[in-house]
Every structure is written in structure tokens, then in C-alpha cells.
Specification:
Length: 455
């Protein structure tokens, strides 16, 4: 710890160091059908002693009813009746477990092409993605699709788990060839870190305990890597972003003029005395107080929930964003983004939607859909006119009000948004502002607004 830090900054750094010992990792699993995702997750839970006795008995009973002698650990995550009947994963299954070194939130995502949207949902907040490959089949189209989605979502760590090594006689050359092909492809997409691990989820090789059948492999097991991979970032390295969720005005005898702004710090560090700009209005003020769960502090950092007071009585409401005056994002009504369409109803040029960004919701129009991404080869299909369910493409939107939006590559929290059906509140599309890993297509003209939502 450097000596030029203030006492408040030293206290914040010490708190971050203390929390590292019990840090939390959000990770997602993905892979083609029958690659063994659910079995891997079940093995991970079982061998790390994270399964209750009654859960294991229920799985054993379900396995016996299907004619299996040994418990099918995949049933620990395949919770839907249709999943158990078909032996596949359909919905995202979330599981929570912990070891003495770390707490985990796990999202087991489907492998079918038609459930790509479910992987986007599960991996959108993940810090690590485990992509499974069947050692007998190698890297297939769906493997490339999952790597591309992880790259689009800016997942910082990717694990390639080459599964079913027991079915290829634990052959090192098979693993090496698959690892080289996948690593080359994922690196070309901009994935910053790739770790390849040979495993057998069914037999337990290299999942929690090292494999006696692969003495040629000297790396970590899956759990060892999950427990030791770096998580989180130094909050001081990111510009502060504070979306206002609620304005507190007690107007009591004790607090007649109190005006506090409550919310969760999306990124960065807030300090008493910081000059901040309120967006989208552009008004400026200075932080005079920070209340963290009833305790007044001089410094707070993401992702703490706090109440902030300012030196000036400004017109601030839910959805406004506080940012450092010297590092405030630009506001715009014209948004270009990469999106994944989630709804069965297509997204078309001219559609009227609601755009939800942090705590702010506003009207918007789909002005253009320049391209649809073909994940198999990362080519762009120009001017598709619409995006169907599971499609990923580029869109151009016009919002009814100025929006303070960061690029997704700079901030996954303040660079993402949702498009919502204004009629019934259904979530339609997940968006990531700015460029994708590939250059966006050009050439399609913006659609004309013929029905009156002209912003």
C-alpha cells in the first residue's frame, strides 16, 4: 500500500483486500448438446460437498426410475420436467455453492441453437465462462457460437473443458489439438484469457480432484481454477457512475431540508468533495455526504449501495446519473449497439420500444438494423430487415431523451440496456452499446418514422 493514499483510501483498499478472501465468482457453462454440461455441474456440486442428502436421494430415485444404476448427476441442475424427460438443458439453471476459498453463482445454460438467448442471459453477468467440448467431436459449430457469445459479452475469462477424455483413452494429442484450435479461434475474437483443462465429468477426472489417468497434464482442476482466477476489478481504475434509484425527501421537523439520492454505485469510487455532473441535464455540484447503510463515510466504491447528498438543490430524479465532472460520459439520442433478440416476435425496423438503461426508462424507435451476425463464421448478413429470436445483430435506435451511455467494452453495467414492449412490459432484446468484436456492416439507410414517434 502506497504512503500517498489518504486514510479513507487506505481503509477502502484494506476492505477490498479483506473481501478478497471470501470473494464471489459468477460463472456460466455452455456447450453443444450432450457434451456433458449438466453432468459437469453435478459433479462439481457433488465432489465439492455442496449437495444435500435429500437432493442426492431425489436424484438417485429419478435415475433408478430411468433404469440407471448410478445417480445421474446431471439431474442436479436439470430441474424442469421437460429437461429430465428429454435429458437436455432448456432453461438457465442457477446454482449457489461455496468452498472455504470462494462463493459461487453458477448458471448452467442450454446447448441447443434455439436457446442461444438463454446463454446470453446466463453469461451477461458472468466473469468466467466454461465452454465444454466432447473430446470425440472436437470444436464444432456450436462451440464457435458459444465462444463468440462470450466474446460479445466481454466475459473476461474462458475455460475450455475438453470433456469425455475417458472415451478417447485420455490421449494427450487429442486434447492438445482441440485446445490449440479453440484457443486460436477465441483469441481472434478478443477473448483475453483462455484456460484449457482435460476432464471426464462422468468419472470425475480433473473436475475437483486431479486425474490419475492424465499424468501428462500439470495444470489446475476445474475447481482449483475457479477458486483462484482473479475476480473483480480495482474500483479506482474506472470512472464513477452512480444511477439515481430513489430521491429521499423526509420533510420532517428533524430533517426539513434533507435531500438524498439513493442507489447502487455502478462503477468507480465516490468521495466527499468530488465535483460531479448530473446527466442528462449537465448541472454540476459537489458531494457533501455519503451514507452507507446508516454510517456516514468519506469514500464508497462499486457495488456499494449508498445515499449521496450534494451541495446544491438540483432537480434530480430517478434515472439521472451522477458522474465525475472530468470523466462524464457524453449524452446522445442516437444509439448504435449490438443486440441479442430474446423474444419470439421479431424485432423490425420502425418498432416502438421502451429502452431501460440502469434506472432510467424511455421511449425509443428502431431506426435501422444494418446487419445480422452469422455466429458460425462471424460474417454479417446486411440489411436483414428484422431480427428473430436468438438472432444477434446491429441496431440503430433513436431515444426520446438524451441518454448517458458508456461503450459496453468500457463498462458492462452502464454500457448495456434492455428493449421492452411498451404494451405489456415484455423484455424483447438485450443490447450492448458500441462496437462488437467485428466491424459492423454499412450501407442500409435509416428507416423513416411514419407513425409519429419522431424524436
Amino acid at each position: 500500500m502506497t504512503s500517498n493514499l489518504t486514510s479513507e483510501e487506505q481503509a477502502a483498499a484494506a476492505a477490498v483486500e479483506r473481501s478478497a478472501a471470501t470473494s464471489q465468482l459468477r460463472f456460466a457453462t455452455a456447450g453443444s448438446v450432450d457434451d456433458g454440461k449438466s453432468t459437469l455441474v453435478g459433479r462439481l456440486l457433488h465432489d465439492s460437498k455442496s449437495v444435500l442428502a435429500d437432493q442426492l436421494e431425489a436424484v438417485a430415485h429419478a435415475s433408478r426410475s430411468r433404469g440407471q444404476e448410478a445417480p445421474d448427476l446431471a439431474l442436479l441442475t436439470d430441474g424442469l420436467r421437460a429437461e429430465r424427460e428429454q435429458g437436455i438443458t432448456i432453461d438457465v439453471a442457477y446454482r449457489y455453492f461455496a468452498t472455504p476459498k470462494r462463493r459461487f453463482i453458477l448458471a448452467d445454460t442450454p446447448g441447443h441453437v434455439q436457446y442461444t438467448r438463454n446463454m446470453v442471459t446466463g453469461a451477461s453477468t458472468a466473469e468466467l465462462a466454461v465452454v465444454l467440448v466432447d473430446a470425440r467431436n472436437g470444436v464444432v459449430e456450436q462451440t464457435r457460437r458459444h465462444a463468440a457469445v462470450a466474446a460479445l459479452l466481454r466475459v473476461p475469462h474462458v475455460v475450455l473443458a475438453v470433456n469425455k477424455m475417458d472415451l478417447v483413452d485420455y490421449a494427450e494429442p487429442v486434447f492438445a489439438a482441440i485446445a490449440e484450435e479453440f484457443t486460436t479461434y477465441a483469441a481472434s475474437l478478443g477473448v483475453p484469457e483462455i484456460t484449457a483443462i482435460p476432464i471426464s465429468a462422468l468419472a470425475g477426472d480433473n473436475v475437483v480432484t486431479p486425474s490419475a489417468n492424465m499424468d501428462w497434464y500439470g495444470g489446475p482442476t476445474v475447481l482449483e481454477h475457479l477458486e483462484t482466477v482473479p475476480v473483480g476489478t480495482d474500483p479506482s481504475q474506472d470512472p464513477a457512475r452512480f444511477p439515481v434509484q430513489y430521491v429521499i425527501r423526509p420533510q420532517t421537523t428533524e430533517h426539513p431540508d434533507y435531500r438524498g439520492y439513493a442507489g447502487q454505485i455502478a462503477s468507480g469510487v465516490l468521495r466527499v468533495g468530488d465535483a460531479v455532473t448530473v446527466l442528462p441535464s449537465g448541472r454540476t455540484s459537489t458531494i457533501t455526504g455519503i451514507d452507507a447503510l446508516g454510517t456516514m463515510v468519506d469514500v464508497a466504491w462499486a457495488p456499494q449501495s449508498v445515499t449521496v447528498t450534494l451541495a446544491d438543490d438540483l432537480d434530480i430524479s430517478r434515472g439521472d446519473l451522477l458522474a465525475p465532472s472530468d470523466h462524464a460520459p457524453e449524452t446522445t439520442q442516437d444509439v448504435e449497439a449490438t443486440v441479442c433478440h430474446l423474444h419470439d416476435r421479431p424485432l423490425r425496423v420502425g418498432d416502438r420500444v421502451l429502452l431501460k438503461h440502469t434506472t432510467r426508462t424511455m421511449k425509443a424507435i428502431i431506426k435501422d438494423i444494418p446487419s445480422r451476425l452469422t455466429l458460425a463464421d462471424l460474417s454479417h448478413h446486411p440489411a436483414p430487415g428484422e431480427l428473430a429470436a436468438n438472432d444477434i445483430g446491429r441496431v440503430v435506435l433513436r431515444t426520446s431523451e438524451p441518454l448517458a451511455l458508456d461503450a459496453y467494452e468500457d463498462s458492462r453495467r452502464t454500457g448495456s440496456f434492455l428493449l421492452i414492449d411498451p404494451a405489456d412490459g415484455t423484455t424483447l432484446t438485450a443490447g450492448m452499446a458500441g462496437d462488437s468484436f467485428a466491424a459492423s456492416a454499412d450501407g442500409a439507410e435509416a428507416a423513416r418514422d411514419d407513425e409519429g414517434w419522431g424524436f
